[in-house]
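To the wet lab folks,

You asked to see what we're planning to order before we commit. Fair enough. Below is the target structure as tokens, and below that is the sequence we designed to fit it. If anything looks off to you, flag it before the synthesis order goes out.
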């Protein structure tokens, strides 16, 4: 094994040393599977482990590749390796520090965090927070009691859960469960070159942006989205400033300044939306491009669904995602309106072909 002893290899397996991925693989006689040293799965008994310098040697001895760490593929890039470690730790309720992640992935904490954020658009800590918030939201949707949902989502205490939920859910968990009860949403409607624009704002930031031709229809849709919130039309300065910025982007071709947002999102949706916000003004990407950008090249359809769930049009620019066949693709407020928005930004209606949708 490239000059390594079995004892040195076993030590590398026990510390999940990603620096040695590609140097050797270890096989488990009790399962018939072989893995990378960094595999996030639970460690086997030492007496059940054999070491091989090459994948082919392990397979010739009758072992098959692990489906979790995929040793038969190219060495997993650092960001993906870190994500696998995070997922495994979170599923097992283990708490990893950046230093420990770096040790297991074979990289410094600084390099690890930078590589992860460049790939997924969030830090490892934010990624884990989004995973827990996603589980919490699902538990609450299913009608579970807050104490039960808190435990099953992985929060160590109710205070930690409420602190995190304020950022991820945009409201207290109880309010989310009750359709926004206790929320205060102020909105206004303005005329733009692509139709009527409705913007809704909470104390934390913009929670709704929609486009249409029927003002009453837009208002009705907002109330249906938050059936138990206190929803009122207002000329509050925060609402006016948000409307000005978004309307200016639609009418004058001025990129709006970053606006604070108040959204609930799954970990996947957050990665997609961050990727959308990184698309330069005046440019487009295909659904496949975005899927690759978040490290899930086969998830183009799921990317399209995340775009459809975007409640803050223009601010999160899902209109900049188009199909690879030259068509603009679906848009919640109509393909024609999407085309006009793209033309107003000076963008192209077509993305560079790069695969399916």
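Sequence we intend to order:
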């Amino acid at each position: 094994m490239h000059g390594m002893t079995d004892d040195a290899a076993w030590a590398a397996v026990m510390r999940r040393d990603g620096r040695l991925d590609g140097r050797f693989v270890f096989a488990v006689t009790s399962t018939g599977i072989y893995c990378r040293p960094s595999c996030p799965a639970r460690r086997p008994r030492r007496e059940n482990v054999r070491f091989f310098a090459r994948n082919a040697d392990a397979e010739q001895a009758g072992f098959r590749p692990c489906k979790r760490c995929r040793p038969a593929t190219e060495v997993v890039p650092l960001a993906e390796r870190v994500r696998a470690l995070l997922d495994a730790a979170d599923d097992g309720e283990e708490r990893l520090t950046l230093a420990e992640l770096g040790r297991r992935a074979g990289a410094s904490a600084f390099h690890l965090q930078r590589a992860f954020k460049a790939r997924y658009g969030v830090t490892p800590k934010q990624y884990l927070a989004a995973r827990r918030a996603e589980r919490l939201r699902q538990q609450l949707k299913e009608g579970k009691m807050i104490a039960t949902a808190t435990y099953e989502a992985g929060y160590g205490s109710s205070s930690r859960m409420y602190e995190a939920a304020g950022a991820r859910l945009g409201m207290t968990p109880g309010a989310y469960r009750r359709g926004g009860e206790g929320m205060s949403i102020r909105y206004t409607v303005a005329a733009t070159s692509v139709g009527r624009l409705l913007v809704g704002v909470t104390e934390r930031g913009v929670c709704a942006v929609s486009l249409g031709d029927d003002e009453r229809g837009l208002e009705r849709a907002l109330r249906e989205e938050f059936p138990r919130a206190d929803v009122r039309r207002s000329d509050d300065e925060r609402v006016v400033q948000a409307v000005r910025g978004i309307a200016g982007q639609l009418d004058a071709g001025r990129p709006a300044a970053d606006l604070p947002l108040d959204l609930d999102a799954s970990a996947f949706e957050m990665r997609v939306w961050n990727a959308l916000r990184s698309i330069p003004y005046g440019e487009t990407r295909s659904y496949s491009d975005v899927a690759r950008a978040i490290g899930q090249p086969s998830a183009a359809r799921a990317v399209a669904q995340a775009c459809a769930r975007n409640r803050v049009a223009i601010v999160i620019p899902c209109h900049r995602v188009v199909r690879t066949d030259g068509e603009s693709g679906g848009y919640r407020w109509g393909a024609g309106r999407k085309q006009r928005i793209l033309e107003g930004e000076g963008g192209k209606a077509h993305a560079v072909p790069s695969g399916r949708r």
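Structural context that might help your review: Confidence is low (pLDDT under 50) at residues 144-151, 155-177, 347-357. The first strand starts at residue 25 and ends at 28.

Thanks,
Computational group
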